[in-house]
Amino acid sequence: MSQVLRGHAEDLYALELEELKKQDSGRRPANWQLTPQSVVTYLVGGTLSNGFEVSPKYIGNRRLMEIAVATLTTDRALLLYGLPGTAKSWVSEHLAAGISGDSTLIIQGTAGTSEEAIRYGWNYARLLAEGPSEKALVETPVARAMKDGKIARIEELTRIGADVQDTLITILSEKTLPVPELNTEIQAVRGFNIIATANNRDKGVNDLSSALKRRFNTVILPVPDSMEEEMDIVKRRVESFEKVMEVPAEPPALQEIRRIVTIFRELRSGVTIDGKTKLKTPSGTLSTAEAISVVNNGMAMAGYFGDGRLTAEDLAAGITGAILKDPVQDKVVWQEYLETVVKSREDWKDIYRACKNVL
Amino acid sequence: MNHILGIRHHGPGSARNVKAFLEAVKPDIVLIEGPPEADELLRWVSDEGLQPPVAILLYQADALQQSVFYPFAEFSPEWQAMLYARQHNIPVRFMDLPVAHTFGIQAQEGQEPAVPVAMATEAPPDAELPAVEVPETEDIYGNAPLRWMAHAGGHTDSDKWWEHTFENRVSNEEVFTAVSEMMRAAREDKPVKDRQEQLREAWMRKTIRQAQKEMYTEVAVICGAWHVPALTQMPPQKEDNELLKGLPKVKVECTWIPWTYSRLSFSSGYGAGINSPGWYSHLWHYPEDDGTRWMAGVAKLLREKQMDTSVAHIIESVRLAHSLAALRGLTKPGLEELNEATLSVVCHGEPMLMQLIKEELIVSNRIGTLPAGIPKPPLQADIEKWQKKLRLPATAAWKDYTLDLRKETDLERSMLLHRLQLLGIHWGKPSGVSGKGTFKEQWRLQWNPELAIDIIDKGNWGNTVEAAATAYVIHQATTAASLQVLCTLLQQALPAELPQAVEALIVQVTNQSAATGDVMQLMQVIAPLVTVSRYGNVRKTNAALVTGIVTGMITRVCISLPGACTGIADDAAQKMLALFLEMNNAISLLQQHDSTREWQQTLQRIAGSNSTHPVIAGYCTRLLADYKLLEGEALVKVFYSAVSAAVAPALAAAWIEGFLKGSGTLLLLDADLWLVVNDWVKQLPEESFIQVLPLLRRTFSHYTTPERRKLGEKVRQGDTPTGNRTAEQTVDAARGERALPVIMQLLGYPAL
């Protein structure tokens, strides 16, 4: 087992990528590792002609993935947009892994991200010692992706200041990165493109200028449509987590996952699954990603502190923590939900007691 | 030789194939799946004036709720077949089971004929032209053979599969053979059991045999793909004749009516609907378009709606659509690919704008037209005449009109719309007018093809809009049960300018108001009637007529009102109070000297009576004060006596509530009145004060905040007796002296 805490997508799924490559027939865009069709298969899963099973990475509308992949075959960049926890970064990582075989060219957008982080920086020691030269240049992931014809990823694009965002315009439209200090430029090799993610829940973000917006095709990733879909996502991700984290607990019963997903869905939509009772909604997004982390957390608790079996007690702390983002408002919401919905459900007694103890 | 062409109704690919096939084969007769009653109508097809989308409407003459529409668009294969036949001067006939029999069978089987007219497209289910007839097979077998084939072809949806396989292809060789073979395979082990279905196919075969008997050699038959096998392998003639013997029959009328694209779409509830008539129309006109022209249309629409859309957007959308098509293994992008590209590139992922594109382009607002000479119901013809004259075209999309009734044309428009409204033909919907003045009207017009049924229905009442509306209103007037219904009707009839109807209504209103013993009902109707008589003048109506009844009614009210105000419960008194307010406003509006005096006298009687409910008595006193019939000393006297110590505090408070109803301004400005109220409150013993406090509070809470504040201020000032004020003005010299040194210092004088 590798000592790495969390492997890159292209390492974890190396076998699948290899098999897909072997089976691949048809025209590959320049510098792509797979054909667009295979990239879609890699994302949504499927059975190859030799019977090899590709696991689904994105569970949901296949069409969205097709649009995303088709966008990357054109020279427009891709903007994945949606609520926090709707698998934007996950999809972007796997798209990069599927297309370029490399998901590591990543820039995390923050309010402090500077132009040097996107274009290029300088190794000042070298710069002072030798003057401006190629060697003194520090390449960013974007510059490297341009040179190698790969996909660069920018996380949380809208968190980056508007003036810094706009440095992307030249890169995206002219496909070149001028370096005036050296009187040269880095020209993008075919296969280069950018996948950006942004969430539409945050306040105080910097909206894209219309010039930049025009260079992106937008795909909005929705929250899961149905209960089954969401459970499927949680189950798969939790299982993969076990693999990675080596948690000693037993795999979680579907029953427990169903309960968590039910709680999250009900609170998110503000109405019970049967549609009969209206509920207050908490301030957090309660995304599928949070449901996954609650189950993971519970499994770790069960594995290290419990008897290895996932019980309501193990989950209670995680659920409460995920829901109570605002200590005053959310507490009222959660207590009301516990008393009016959870308490009255016949086989939910244990979770009710456990959550009451935590509160 | 018989050529059986299996098609999908409303499919541009099928339409193109049919057209190409007919041009190649040159048949000498064309038979089309459709109602034979409408054969006569087919001669209009080549007329310039008949522009699809249009529909053939068939209805049972004596039971209009039994009706059925056969819509045709430009891209319907049937339409193209008719057009071909007419242009090449060869006979064309419909060959489906006559609707007369379908209705007859339904009536015989006792099926509920009362299908609401709006749903008529769905009834009878089989007379419709379902898309590829899939729903039918599903109904009968529970699982559609077409779905299996779609599944085998790698599609989840049989409709989409059909589209990709047959509609979207450009080359059309042997398409019909393929369809025929496929359907034969599908129907092989699923013989048709439904009787209606058997009858229809038998009739089709009968028509084909008839054509052969008439020595036509090249017979082209256009029918739903599902029927193809039944028409290629003919059973013995005798069997069919046996089946078709003695079918029940009813009398059926038919005509062309204009149709709309939105009524062709599924969302309108049309059984054989298609999702995207606008897109099909585009496909029909530009079969070679790779999405560029479509996207240009999208851009044009968005720019019209002030949405920035650059050429670069369109270029990128087309490229993305092509990439998507390539990714999905399609030869060229379809509507889905184009929509997805539009959503992603132009709309930045926001589905809101897509709704607009769907309404305007994918479904589109197109409406068909009919030639002038076509025989149509007289009422319809009259409506069209007016539409033309007043320049109010029937459109499928709604359009707002603001009518200025001072203008001749607008007045006539309003008249027409009001008359149609009275007839229950809801083409226009009146909406609220912004701004002041009674000379403006706001209407929202939207033509709905099913109005045709309403028009035929109301055609019984007369041949012109005016005659029909008059007759219909008179009919309603004689059957109306309550005065209120009559008055509403009168209110509607006046702007419609139907003198005869109005006269009949007035007679009815007078009769009923004489007969009614309910004063409250009379009071309720007076207010709207007064509005009519006062403002009716803009429309040059004979307002004198209405004024006549109104004054009569006021007299009646005045006579019985005092009696109605005595001995009533508190809630009833409150209701009465509201009516008093309305009635009083109405009388002020009427400005008829006699009526006003009559009303004032009545008020005096009510106010003066001891047995009147105190709230009403109080309110009447106030009205009298407003009329300046009770002023100064007299008013104070009345108030004193009403609230004097002998009167129970609850009653006194009720009286005050009525008196002060609506406005505290009187109280603020009239010093005498203020004193009276103030003194009364002050002299109340504590227990009585506590008792009346809630009532007083209720009265005062109706006032506006500034009024209440001013009243409060006035109380505070009034509470300060004059004596105190002088006391406050006395100066404490000793205290003042102590401050002097500091002030001197501040002013720069040497200390004392």
TrEMBL record, chain A:
Pfam families: AAA_5 (PF07728)
Ranges of residues in domain ATPase dynein-related AAA: 78-216
Gene3D superfamilies given in the database record: P-loop containing nucleotide triphosphate hydrolases
Origin: domain of life: Bacteria
GO molecular function per UniProt: ATP binding; ATP hydrolysis activity
InterPro entries in UniProt: ATPase_dyneun-rel_AAA (IPR011704), CbbQ/NirQ/NorQ/GpvN (IPR050764), P-loop_NTPase (IPR027417)
Name of the featured protein: ATPase
Natural source organism: Filimonas zeae
UniProtKB/TrEMBL annotation, chain B:
InterPro entries named among the record's database cross-references: DUF5682, LolB
Residue intervals passing through the bilayer: none
Disordered: annotated segments: 708-729
Biased composition (Polar residues): 719-729
Ranges of Basic and acidic residues composition bias in the record: 708-717
PANTHER family registered for this protein in UniProt: OUTER MEMBRANE LOLAB LIPOPROTEIN INSERTION APPARATUS, PTHR30634:SF14
Protein name: Uncharacterized protein
Organism: Filimonas zeae
